[in-house]
Design brief:
Blueprint lengths: L8 H18 L8 H53 L4 H101 L1
Helix pairs in contact: 1-2, 1-3, 2-3
Length: 193
C-alpha cells in the first residue's frame, strides 16, 4: 500500500501523546482536557486503524487467490487446447477452433485480473481515506490541546501578575505606616547623642 507520509500511523499517534504531555507541563501542570480520555481516544483510533489494515490484508490475500486461480485456469485451457490440437487432424477448421479457445481463455484471465486490480485499488483508496481521517482527527486534538494549554498559561500568568501587584500594594501600605515610626526613632537617637 502506498504511504503518503514517512511516518506510519502508530508513530504519528505516539507523537500526539508526547506533545500532549509536553503541553500539560508547559501550562504549569493545569490542563482542562482529561488525559485518560485523550489517550483512550488515541487507543480507539489506533484500534480502528489496525482493524482497517487487517481488512485490507484479507482483501489483498483474496485478490492474490483470485489472480492465481485465473492463471491456473488460463494454463489449463491452453493445455486442453494444445491437447485438442495434437489429437485433431491438421485441418484449417481445427486450428481456428483451437485459436478461439485460446483467445477465450485469455479474455477470461484478463477479466479476472482486471477485477482483482479494481478490488485492490478500491481497498488502497479506502485505506488512504481512513488514514487521512485519523491524521486530521489527530491534528484537531493537538490544536485543541495547545489552545487550551495557551489559555491556561495566560490565565496563570495574569493571576501571578495580579498577585504580585496585590503584594506590592500591601508592601507600599506597610512602608507608609512604618516609615514615620522609623524616622521618629532615628530623630530620638540623634537627639540623645
Amino acid at each position: 500500500m502506498k504511504e503518503t507520509n514517512t511516518k506510519n500511523a502508530f508513530e504519528y499517534l505516539d507523537d500526539l501523546e508526547y506533545v500532549y504531555d509536553a503541553s500539560v507541563f508547559k501550562a504549569f501542570g493545569k490542563c482542562w482536557i482529561d488525559k485518560n480520555r485523550f489517550i483512550e481516544a488515541i487507543t480507539n483510533s489506533r484500534a480502528a486503524l489496525t482493524q482497517e489494515l487487517e481488512k485490507a490484508r484479507k482483501i489483498e490475500i483474496r485478490e492474490q487467490k483470485i489472480y492465481e486461480e485465473a492463471e491456473k485456469k488460463k494454463e489449463e485451457m491452453i493445455r486442453e487446447t494444445e491437447e485438442m490440437i495434437a489429437n485433431l487432424d491438421p485441418v484449417k477448421e481445427a486450428e481456428l477452433f483451437a485459436q478461439q479457445i485460446v483467445e477465450k481463455a485469455q479474455e477470461e484471465a484478463e477479466r479476472i485480473r482486471m477485477e482483482a486490480l479494481e478490488t485492490r485499488d478500491n481497498t488502497i483508496s479506502h485505506g488512504e481515506k481512513v488514514k487521512n481521517e485519523l491524521i486530521n482527527q489527530g491534528h484537531q486534538f493537538l490544536e485543541n490541546v495547545l489552545k487550551s494549554s495557551l489559555i491556561t498559561f495566560d490565565e496563570n500568568q495574569k493571576h501571578l501578575f495580579n498577585s504580585l501587584e496585590s503584594h506590592r500594594e500591601k508592601l507600599m501600605i506597610a512602608y507608609e505606616e512604618i516609615a514615620p515610626m522609623v524616622k521618629t526613632d532615628n530623630e530620638e537617637t540623634t537627639q540623645a547623642s
